[in-house]
Specification:
The structure is a homotetramer of 180-residue chains.
Chain A (H helix, E strand, L loop, with lengths): L3 E6 L10 H24 L3 E8 L8 H9 L18 E4 L10 H7 L4 E7 L1 H14 L3 E10 L3 H14 L3 E3 L8
Parallel strand pairs in A: 1-2, 1-4, 2-3, 4-5, 5-6
Amino acid sequence: MRNIAVVVVDMLNPYDHDDADLLEKSVEQIVEPLSGLIRRAHRSSHARLIFVNDNHGDFTAGREELQRRALDGRRPDLVEPVLAPSDSPFMPKVRHSAFYGTPLDYLLRSEGIDTVVLAGQVTEQCVLYSALDAYVREFSLRVARDCVAHIHSDLAEASMRMMERNMSAELLPAESCLDV
Amino acid sequence: MRNIAVVVVDMLNPYDHDDADLLEKSVEQIVEPLSGLIRRAHRSSHARLIFVNDNHGDFTAGREELQRRALDGRRPDLVEPVLAPSDSPFMPKVRHSAFYGTPLDYLLRSEGIDTVVLAGQVTEQCVLYSALDAYVREFSLRVARDCVAHIHSDLAEASMRMMERNMSAELLPAESCLDV
Amino acid sequence: MRNIAVVVVDMLNPYDHDDADLLEKSVEQIVEPLSGLIRRAHRSSHARLIFVNDNHGDFTAGREELQRRALDGRRPDLVEPVLAPSDSPFMPKVRHSAFYGTPLDYLLRSEGIDTVVLAGQVTEQCVLYSALDAYVREFSLRVARDCVAHIHSDLAEASMRMMERNMSAELLPAESCLDV
Amino acid sequence: MRNIAVVVVDMLNPYDHDDADLLEKSVEQIVEPLSGLIRRAHRSSHARLIFVNDNHGDFTAGREELQRRALDGRRPDLVEPVLAPSDSPFMPKVRHSAFYGTPLDYLLRSEGIDTVVLAGQVTEQCVLYSALDAYVREFSLRVARDCVAHIHSDLAEASMRMMERNMSAELLPAESCLDV
């Protein structure tokens, strides 16, 4: 029974946007633990590994194209270790929340998942917004605290406290995120 | 042409929940400017005044009942001056965002509204979450900065910065919120 | 454990719209069995009784107002026997489906409901559309076939076949709808 | 200004499901007019061409994979002439409606589209359900009547009447669907 989903948000990034330099520094810190979390979730019998990624406004682009652009971007070293395994669900998204305009809610419910582990970028934007949408839908929340990257550390820190205090999220190291 | 909506969130509150004492102190500061904003929006020919309020888990309760309970609660002085005029739309909500499980998106679009002014409580929860849901739907955002009340001032302050920086919200005094 | 919900759609009707005369004839046939279904669902320990009703474009109107207008309408005899008990959830809706712009999905999931029984009007419109929205969300469907009223019998008959064939709905008499 | 969208539903089909034989006969009739409609919409300056296709339960599959499977299926002759141009938006869907769990609503609104032309398969299922979801969202509806394919002709015929009568859809030949 898979009742935990690890949702990896927006790690396919060409790092060519505003503030990319600030973000990269933070992403450098999470690549190794996130890579490990992805590997463990992929092997796990009770966890479901799901990738959701912004299409950056290009509605013609799917998995292959978004992956290619990220690998052809400025920092393939931040992309390659955390790529989605080919047998993992992958959903393009069009706005900040992983739930908006995607079948994530449907997939989670149809698999009986009750706990969502969030990882990826950006802590104070897509991660926070996805957390909120999981919370209003009554999913239990975990945030892999060493697997989320930010642009602004003060807003990221406030976001982590909001998720913990107001969304009852557990902030856990990657190695504990799949514990039952 | 009404292209601005003032959305007043969760001001019907019996103030009997955890942290109500912290919240009340903040609400005391906003009652007067919010009352003025409601009055001006109600009179305005280009603004639409909409009230959205949590049902506090009671799906049998509608406008009259939620209003009665708030007026019978601990702080009717914080409720009475900001009641919804009887000819203003009123929507019960069931979770934090004013958009989740409500017809708010439908009403805004069917009236051609492109700008949402947020007011009410709690800045770092329902106001922030409603702001996000307006933002992903591409509404322009204004926050009436003297008409939003918080429980925790540090999280509220971070929320205001998030709305301004990451959701392109204008933080305005009530008296400027209806400017075109 | 309440795992069945009986959803009664749009029975608060002043019967002053186009085609009301065609509809009334059909509603006359369902009032008695629907009244019985409402009574049994209300008493049942494993069923949840929920009312969803169009606001007919008036976003200021809630439960009391919609009820009053229907009772003051042309056919109170079709309204009074099927009124919502005061302790039953009631949701205004703004478009045809009982799921669109309402917290119905949230309420069903938060109560662990897996089976939706549909009753009310109009078979080939709001009932069909609500059935579809329940079906895409993977709820099991039952239609109380003696508790749904139509305007056009040919479209209603096609709708019943669509729900049975394409949405795996069981078409049952009211007296069997709560069977486990 | 593109204010019309042509939404092509579920034409990537390996035709290996139940009732595929019934469906194929109908699809054979629409391939030529649909191919023409796609070509004209693709060239048009005021129309937006969008493809939405079921993922058949495989959340790892995107555009390339769904296209490959359809072309490798039993009837590539029904697939090849109506493939999505590479510069057209493509959205996987997971249930029957083209709006459910997809960014279609977002894309239509962000481009200022007010009129949706539906084409594809199956008339009495995904086309009907997508029509409903467009209708509740207040889009004007056109159905390219020679570009929709059915499994059961009686239900398809009833669906066309429902869309025309109850959803104010215009049923038009492909050659008139882009008229302003």
